[in-house]
Design goal:
- With 299 residues, the chain is α/β, with parallel strands linked by helices.
- The protein has 2 domains: 123 residues, no CATH class; 147 residues, no CATH class.
- Strands 1-2-5-4 form a 4-stranded mixed sheet. A 3-stranded mixed sheet has the order 7-9-8, with helices on one face. The protein has a two-stranded antiparallel sheet with strand order 3-6.
- Helix 2 links the parallel strand 1 and strand 2.
- Helix 1 runs antiparallel to helix 8 and helix 7 crosses helix 9.
- It comes from Flexibacter flexilis DSM 6793.
C-alpha cells in the first residue's frame, strides 16, 4: 500500500515548480521521449497516469520504476541520503453538508445523495529505484522497437482508434481538426520529414477530435476559441499531452511542434497565471486517450 500525504500546502505549486524548471531549461516535458515502459510503481507494476507520467519522466532516470519511502523500507532498502522525492498526485473526495458547510468524514451510503462532493487534490512522495540502495532489483527485459515496427504499431493503433474518430481526410498542406464539420485533415505522409512525424501530428488532431460534443464534449472544442485565447491554449496543451501518450503506445517519439523561446515562455506565463492548468490539461488528455483506446478509468 502506498503511503499518502494528507497534508499539502499547495500541490499545484509543487507540480508547477517542477514543470516550470524544465521549461526554463528549454525543454517542454510533454515533448520528451518516453522509455519503453511508462513510469510505474515497482511493486504493483501499475503505470502512473496523467500529470504523474510527465513528472516522473522529468529527470531521465535509467529505469522508470518508483517506490514510496515505506515500500523501500519494507523491501529492506534505504533511500540514499540527500535524494529528492517526486510527488505523485491523486484526487480524493471531500463530502460537505450543504446546510452546516462542514465536512462529513466516511459518510454512510444513504447520506451521499444529501452531500456535496468536492474533489480534493492530494499527493504522496516516491523515489526512483536508482535513489534506493540495499535491494536486489528484478527488472523485466524490454526490447526496444525498431523504426519499421514502430510505424506498423502506429498504423495498428490508428486503425484501432478509428471507430472513435471522425473521418480523416488526407491531402492539403496543413493538419487540423474542424469541430463544425467534424473531420480531421492531414497532409499526405510523404510531405512529412519522417513517418513518425506524420503519426505524431495525426495523434495531436485525434485528441482535439475527442472534444467534440458527441464525444467528450470539452468546452474548449465545443465553444469557439480565438487563436491565442486562454481556452485555445488549454486545448492545445491537452492535445500535445494526449498525443505524447499516444506516441508512447505507438512507440514513436513525440512530435516537437515548437521548442522556440516564445513557445516555452508562453507556457511559463500561462502556468503562472493559472496554477491548475497543467493538472487539468493532463487529466483531460488522459481521459481523451482512455476514450480512444476504449479504456474506462475513474481516476
Amino acid at each position: 500500500m502506498e503511503s499518502k500525504n494528507n497534508s499539502t500546502p499547495d500541490v499545484y505549486q509543487r507540480v508547477n515548480q517542477l514543470i516550470m524548471a524544465r521549461l526554463e531549461q528549454g525543454v517542454a516535458p510533454w515533448q520528451q521521449p518516453w522509455q519503453n515502459t511508462l513510469p510505474q510503481n515497482y511493486l504493483s507494476k501499475k503505470p502512473y497516469r496523467g500529470i504523474n507520467c510527465f513528472l516522473l519522466n522529468l529527470f531521465n532516470f535509467q529505469e522508470p520504476y518508483f517506490l514510496t519511502f515505506q515500500q523501500a523500507s519494507d523491501l529492506g532498502g534505504k533511500v540514499i541520503k540527500n535524494s529528492k522525492a517526486l510527488p505523485v498526485v491523486y484526487w480524493n473526495w471531500l463530502y460537505i453538508d450543504p446546510i452546516t458547510q462542514k465536512s462529513v468524514p466516511n459518510p454512510a451510503p444513504q447520506q451521499l445523495p444529501l452531500l456535496e462532493k468536492v474533489p480534493l487534490l492530494r499527493y504522496y512522495n516516491v523515489f526512483n529505484i536508482s535513489q534506493i540502495e540495499g535491494i536486489k532489483w528484478q527488472l523485466p527485459q524490454v526490447q526496444p522497437l525498431g523504426a519499421n515496427l514502430s510505424i506498423q504499431t502506429a498504423e495498428r493503433l490508428l486503425h484501432f482508434m478509428q471507430p472513435q474518430l471522425p473521418p480523416i481526410r488526407v491531402g492539403g498542406s496543413s493538419a487540423y481538426y474542424t469541430p463544425p464539420m467534424d473531420y480531421i485533415q492531414i497532409p499526405e505522409k510523404q510531405h512529412f520529414i519522417k513517418p513518425e512525424s506524420y503519426y505524431a501530428t495525426l495523434f495531436h488532431e485525434c485528441i482535439h477530435a475527442t472534444g467534440h460534443a458527441k464525444r467528450l464534449c470539452r468546452k474548449e472544442v465545443v465553444e469557439t476559441s480565438s487563436f491565442g485565447s486562454y481556452s485555445y491554449g488549454v486545448e492545445e496543451l491537452t492535445a500535445e499531452m494526449g498525443a505524447s501518450f499516444l506516441c508512447y503506445h505507438a512507440q514513436i517519439l513525440p512530435q516537437v511542434l515548437d521548442n522556440s523561446v516564445a513557445y516555452l515562455e508562453s507556457w511559463l506565463k500561462a502556468i503562472k497565471e493559472d496554477k491548475r492548468l497543467l493538472i487539468n490539461a493532463s487529466a483531460r488528455a488522459q481521459k481523451a486517450v482512455d476514450y480512444l483506446l476504449g479504456q474506462q478509468n475513474d481516476e
